[in-house]
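batch job 7 of whatever, protein = TetR/AcrR family transcriptional regulator
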Amino acid sequence: MAAESGRAKRTTYRHGDLRNALVEAGLELAREGGPEAVVLRAATRQAGVVPNAAYRHFADRGALLHAVSQAAMARLARTMEAEQAALPPAPDAAAAARARFRAVGTGYLRFAQEEPGLFRTAFHVPGDMTYAADDTAAGGSGRTPFELLGAALDDLVENGLLPEDRRPGAEFLAWSAVHGLAALLIDGPLRGLLPSQAHDAGQHIIDMIERGI
């Protein structure tokens, strides 16, 4: 077993995969314990390398946590994309745009409830919006969760469902409402709701957003 472990470590170095291995280890730590669990020593132990090896790729714990946060954000984006991809055919373009917009919120809430540790970690970010358009936080379509929301809102405008003069800043209003519900469901007083109740609450909040914008 010791020899096998040694070979695994050398393979990681030779192929240059250590950075990705540490991020993946960080994601597993985050899944179980949120951002507080993402520490260099634990990540290196999980990746099967000595602690000092991490400093070849990450200057400190903050750098690793930022990379893991972006990776968790990308997983959120992929969940939102999957929600949109699973939509049944719509009768017309307007109905399809509305369904895609609703799927953005539904996928966001689903990820928060299914992966609370990763959800918390995804939003353990610097105090500005630079991360929201960083390609390291993008899903398969190349868009981040914030960009997926923006695209869905643009789609509503193009199909006559959202007046153009009400489009500016609409993503901040929609994001605030859905994120607020997600936080209440995983860390707040709504965490005791049954799955069916949480789903209904999500659909109601999306209804409210649609009416509001």
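notes: Residues 61-85 form the longest helix (25 residues).
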